[in-house]
């Protein structure tokens, strides 16, 4: 709730109107039985004037009720959507201040859920809050007071009814919360089997395990069926029990009126209104219960939103002008452990790279290649040691300077939906067509871009699904170099390119970006043959540093990798 | 409209077995409704009897004859009616709860069964998320709708009919007065619901776009951070966010206003009934007691009259979802099954050879992928398929196991078309190791014996040993009982692939297909897997599809596919000597000093 209040306050005026209209609505609803009582007395007395007068008031009251209901809905929606929109905007902006480690801590898909589903839950509860929740206590208290005024000596009937209804609800809620937890578990089980079978349908079919999987699924499904049936049985008793309780209360009330009718003859005319109030109280209690369930769900969502809002970015940048620095890189005794891991991914790594050099990094999967590259781009900060770019500790560089200096091209190249030029201009906002052509030429992308009907204005679909893997990678490289970075990191960024295109890319980089330091991470040794130096990583440590020839001669880890990729001697000439 | 028809057919299919339960429910609800609508007349009678009693008592002459006996009896009947209502309603709710839970269960299992029979093509042409949503969201919507709507529909319809009958029985004029505002209410409801439908559609479209944007941006947060695009990203977001605000505003208002409007109409209707009722009571020929009773009864009816209409309108959205859900689940149910031969021949291993003969194949009509491919393999031979992405290598694998059937040409084992064997027979003889080693939740042992759940531990261990993974498994604290879940696996891609190889070894297949089994691992791990695969291939007929040529240098025959046609064929040395496409490919991949 603490998260919500400041947002609701921004829509104070709408909130007041919503509440005033709800009060008007409650007033109209509760006053009607009062007027009925007056009219009933008038019938007893045969007073037509009173009936006519009160009848007009009744109709006016009903019209007020309708108008109040509509006004309330409109202004509740203003508040609910205002709050949801603002909250979502703040949440999104907050996430954009996060360091990558923070995004990973929550996981991207989890953050998406918080910004979509959780916000939606909050919007629903705010809407319901101004439409319903404020009405329920008002209705409840109002109906209770009016019922007491109508028949003061029957207070205990009301109390007894409420006690029974609340008792039954509490009992069944306690019993059912256990079932609800089980349901959640069983739903997950069912979904797991379904999902695994979807993804592994070829495995299931090729092993002819369909009957076995069906029986596995049936078992999981039957458990779910049984528990949902049990919940259903429990719910089945609730409504009839509530109404029976209320009607027993009605019978008791009328019986008492009958016994005392000679003493309090006016109560005769009050029976109907008393019953109305009784039913209002019952509905208020029942709806209150439903809203409590809804509110507790929204509360969970609010907690999840709050958790994001309260997270401080784990990495901050110094403020400063944006000026690219030189392309030298230095690692000085760097050790890095991923949050939650036991052992370090990089251990005591030291090396230097001079501006303009091309460096290759090789090693088995999990040896720390990508981690090393990510530290240069400051996606993470090292636990120990210092990383310098252009002679300055990366922690002392402003975010803008660092981004202008270092371009990082990922293996899983992601382009954003839009157009090719929009993607390129995200990095260099004033890029001209000839600059785009220049970059695309280097990345060997121009041949296919120029064949597209709209060339650089060609659309990029979601997940760049209208481009092949190799095309995506070439577009990513284009984006990486368009701003002529001082340092270019290619993280397995040419894996989908054939050897010929890969060679052309590297040659063009050599020729046109002479001042740029290039760091190439690769699985294929052929990708880094041209490097000035190759760093060999093994279990987070640098075990080799030299050119291909030196390493083939002297480095056992490198030799092992090399042997698996080496051509057979015979037949090659 | 056709949606509604299909949905009815769908639900009829699952509901017809519960006809007795539904009939019982209908009867019970009928009784319950009768109790509810008759009860107010006893309330009215009680009030009227009390009035008479009071009048008798007030008059000194009749005071001695005044007694409350009939009043008490009336109250007892009133109470009895509500007891009857509660009892019948309770039993009916129990029956419907059972039907709801069990019919949804049947639907769920039915969907899964169907999934196991369907052609692979469906899974290849639909996203996993979309199919899974039929379990998670569509069946869920169906369950929720059945759970809440079923009883409400029964109750509302019965209550409405019962109310009409009893109202006209009581007093025709007052019944018409009570009903007078109905057309206005129905018109309002229809207009609002239509507006809400349009507005909510707009809202959902905009929300979909916003969610798409958030999803695209946040899953690519690495790119955003490394390129410093945060400000741009927020700017783009705000545009979508504002749009959602505007369209959701009208969606929320139109869908939210129906309930207060109907409640207001109910209030107005009650006011009209009170007004006319009392005027009618005073100007009529009724006694005061009867007039009072009439007003009491009809006020009660007026308050109940709008209940069914309100319930049904509030269920509208839910019913809509259930109809959509039924359509989407039904869509899957109507997919074709895999084709089994009418009378199948027995397949017991390959005796001489497997022949792929002039096979043409297309996934989509008119877009042929394989153009007359012929390969012959002798028992015990290893054939490698190589070629660039999209050349049709994996397609050949898909045909061998009959995940797809050829358009023309044939695949034969010892001269018999594979379409003449039962799918079970064929697939039990063909083992596949896929690029993505899909494991299932369960223990490692369960996963290795996946193809033969009855296999004993000895067989499991033996297979693991052959696959070079036994030592790793025993090094785990729980050994073979270690739990595997594909979601958050502690195993590397290479380890999973070795387990999947062990899984295939255990079933001892005659024909083995290895589909790029090592493409997701680094070259050193690949060498490990390669060693395991060499052992598996030993003595079996095998097809190996390879991205990296290093793995297939020893093949008896290498078939080079390009754009769906075979362009070269022969062993490694022969193909290198030819100095054609294969030789180029080889030089590209390998490091040659």
UniProtKB/TrEMBL annotation, chain A:
Places the protein is found: Cell membrane
GO MF term (any one): ATP hydrolysis activity
Protein name per the record: Multidrug ABC transporter ATP-binding protein
Organism: Companilactobacillus nuruki
Main localisation: membrane
Parts of the chain that traverse the membrane: 15-31, 51-71, 133-149, 155-173, 231-256, 268-294
The ABC transmembrane type-1 domain, residue ranges: 17-297
Alphabetical list of CDD domains matching this protein: ABC_6TM_Tm287_like
PROSITE patterns reported in the protein's UniProt record: ABC_TM1F, ABC_TRANSPORTER_2
Domain of life: Bacteria
Domain ABC transporter: 329-564
GO cellular component terms, A-Z: plasma membrane
Topology in membrane: Multi-pass membrane protein
PANTHER family to which the protein is assigned, alphabetical: ABC TRANSPORTER ATP-BINDING PROTEIN_PERMEASE, ATP-BINDING CASSETTE SUB-FAMILY B
Entry keywords, A to Z: ATP-binding, Cell membrane, Membrane, Nucleotide-binding, Transmembrane, Transmembrane helix, Transport
Pfam hit, one: ABC_membrane
SUPFAM superfamilies registered for this protein in UniProt: ABC transporter transmembrane region, P-loop containing nucleoside triphosphate hydrolases
TrEMBL record, chain B:
Transmembrane segments: 20-43, 75-97, 149-168, 174-193, 271-299
Key words of the record: ATP-binding, Membrane, Nucleotide-binding, Transmembrane, Transmembrane helix, Transport
GO cellular component: a single term: plasma membrane
One GO MF term: ABC-type transporter activity
Source organism per UniProt: Companilactobacillus nuruki
Residue stretches making up the ABC transmembrane type-1 domain: 23-321
Source organism, top-level taxon: Bacteria
Localisation per UniProt entry: Cell membrane
Pfam families: ABC_membrane (PF00664), ABC_tran (PF00005)
Domain (ABC transporter) ranges: 354-588
PROSITE patterns named in the record: ABC_TM1F (PS50929), ABC_TRANSPORTER_1 (PS00211), ABC_TRANSPORTER_2 (PS50893), PROKAR_LIPOPROTEIN (PS51257)
Keyword flag NAD: no
InterPro entries per UniProt: AAA+_ATPase, ABC1_TM_dom, ABC1_TM_sf, ABC_transporter-like_ATP-bd, ABC_transporter-like_CS, P-loop_NTPase, Type_1_exporter
Protein name: Multidrug ABC transporter permease
Key word Oxidoreductase present: no
SMART domains, A to Z: AAA (SM00382)
Signal peptide: none
Chief location bin: membrane
Membrane topology per record: Multi-pass membrane protein
